[in-house]
Specification:
Shape: elongated
Structural class: mainly beta
Number of strands: 43
Oligomer: single chain
Distance between the termini: 88 Å
Helix content: under 10%
Radius of gyration: 28 Å
Strand order of the largest sheet: 5-7-9-11-13-16-19-22-24-26-28-30-33-36-39-42
Largest sheet: 16 strands, parallel
Number of helices: 5
Length: about 525
């Protein structure tokens, strides 16, 4: 079709956006011109093109500009020739072979958009120059500003392929959407995406970025010896602004799935599915960062995998996890469902549901000894392993307070190693309306506490042995139902226990006291 866009490219001149759009309207719709059919679903790249066309002063059809869309000839030189400020490069249907990096920095506004467009990276041996990226758009010392990268499939199904699709460093206005990586990343180079917002007031969006086939460990790739472990899925460890990951999908990567914890900015993970990554499937930090509406699952272990954490929270204040489901069904689970690291200043977890089953001891939620305040609310942990803690609360002097409210801990966990539904070694912890039922193993307990000033109020506690074992000072238990599945007493106190107060509880089987000091009981039933 010989139209306005062809004239633009043939003349080598730029055109005014409004005049170009007027010319376009007389020939065809924008969707038809670039191969976007009228039946495309709402919210697709095609629907967004009209907005992009209004925004960018220069729009270039990359095929009209001379790029091969059969996957035969490299398109790198054509992209380099036509990249520019206030420019949108549009990729019509086809395959686009890339054998070198495209680098563009310091821009004010730049975009690339495709529809049924597939980028085909060269294999490790053929790729020329730095074997790290297809697109490097902005760098820390010369970031871009507004960047659009929308609507591409990446075909890395051939052997020894896999490369960082996009490395984006912008001050503000990052928009990355509908990127689908097909095939395992088996070249051993960097993983598919890295993103940085450099300005504290800047924002960015990564939506529907999918790499479900994950990446190979580097020792199984041609880059063996040049990378630790292997690729990361999506990386955002220098972010200063607000960066959102919406409905992303990642398979198993050797060095974290979504790794977004190193910057001072805010990370928002909204929706998505994250599976089988070593170290952590989702690893998030930053001030006010949140993970919500996400599913994290481990159902496969490779020989090199040593730490399949589901969710790891670190490095920040007011970190949140909301409506998150974590499932680990691997026969050999090798790490916790949720880890709250020492570098967390405060954490709020609500509607977090963890299920771990397998043949090895593991834990549901682990709170590190030096972290700040933690709240776990309206959540459930099911543990079906030979042992382990549903909730493990470590503590050191000066650590923050921990509150569990409306939390259920269930499952058939046994008594190997960790033999309690909840283990508390921190002072100033409160359990309200917590229910623990632990019928597995002859020595399984509901709660074991060594911290001072533990408050347990209005809860349900059952276990094979003593439901509650206390070795702390100032423990207060009120309006609790506690009963052994066997013949043990409801609560057991040791000589380390002091000033324990038991009020209005139903302690079926009574109290076993091995020499506590200052015990007070009021209104209990036995």
């Amino acid at each position: 079709m010989e139209g306005a866009i062809g004239a633009l490219i043939d003349s080598g001149k730029t055109t005014n956006r409004r005049s170009w759009l007027r010319g376009l309207a007389t020939t065809a719709s924008a969707g038809a011109l670039f191969g976007f059919g009228s039946t495309t679903a709402a919210g697709s790249t095609a629907d967004r093109l009209d907005r992009y066309f209004e925004e960018f002063g220069t729009v270039i059809d990359i095929v009209e500009a001379g790029a091969d869309n059969t996957g035969t000839e490299s398109v790198v030189d054509v992209i380099r020739e036509h990249r520019g400020d206030d420019t949108l490069l549009v990729f019509p249907p086809g395959e686009y072979y890339m054998d070198e990096q495209v680098r563009f920095t310091g821009f004010e506004k730049f975009g690339l958009a495709g529809n049924d467009a597939t980028l085909v990276p060269a294999d490790y041996q053929t790729f020329d120059g730095p074997q790290y990226r297809l697109f490097r758009l902005g760098v820390e010392y010369s970031p871009g500003t507004r960047l659009v990268f929308d609507g591409f499939d990446i075909d890395q199904t051939a052997p020894d392929t896999g490369i960082r699709v996009i490395d984006a460093v912008v001050t503000d206005g990052l928009e990355v959407r509908d990127i689908s990586v097909r095939g395992q990343h088996d070249s051993g180079t960097w993983g598919p995406g890295r993103f940085t917002i450099t300005d504290a007031s800047g924002t960015g969006l990564v939506e529907n970025f999918e790499a479900p086939d994950g990446g190979a460990w580097v020792d199984e790739t041609p880059n063996d010896g040049n990378l630790w472990r292997g690729p990361t899925g999506l990386l955002a460890n220098s972010n200063n602004g607000t960066l959102r990951f919406v409905d992303c999908v990642l398979g198993g990567f050797p060095d974290n799935g979504l790794y977004a914890s190193g910057g001072s900015g805010k990370i928002v993970v909204d929706g998505g599915v994250f599976k089988n990554s070593n170290a952590a499937c989702v690893r998030v930090g930053g001030q006010g960062s949140v993970v919500r509406n996400a599913t994290i699952e481990v159902d496969q272990n490779r020989p090199q995998d040593s730490s399949h954490r589901g969710l790891r929270l670190e490095n920040g204040n007011d970190l949140r996890a909301e409506n998150v489901t974590i499932r680990n069904y691997e026969p050999l689970p090798n790490s916790h469902g949720v880890s709250v690291m020492n570098s967390c200043e405060s954490v709020w977890m609500e509607d977090v549901n963890v299920k771990i089953s397998g043949d090895e001891v593991d834990h549901g939620v682990v709170i590190s000894p030096e972290c700040g305040d933690v709240v776990l609310l309206d959540s459930g942990i099911e543990l079906d392993t030979p042992g382990g803690f549903g909730v493990r609360i470590h503590g050191e002097e000066g650590a923050g307070d921990v509150i569990l409210e409306h939390v259920n801990v269930v499952g058939e966990a046994g008594d190997e190693s960790g033999a309690a539904g909840i283990r508390c070694d921190r002072d100033n912890v409160r359990f309200g309306k917590v229910a623990v039922d632990q019928p597995g193993g002859t020595n399984r307990r509901a709660v074991v506490n060594t911290g001072d000033n533990l408050k347990i109020y209005d809860g349900f506690y059952r276990a094979t042995e003593h439901p509650i074992i206390d070795l702390g000072t100032g423990t207060w238990v009120e309006e609790v139902y506690a009963k052994s599945h066997g013949d043990a007493e409801a609560i057991c106190l040791y000589d380390e226990s002091a000033d324990v107060y038991l009020k209005n509880n139903k302690l079926r089987g009574g109290i076993e006291d091995y020499g506590s000091e200052g015990l007070k009981t009021v209104g209990n039933e036995y």
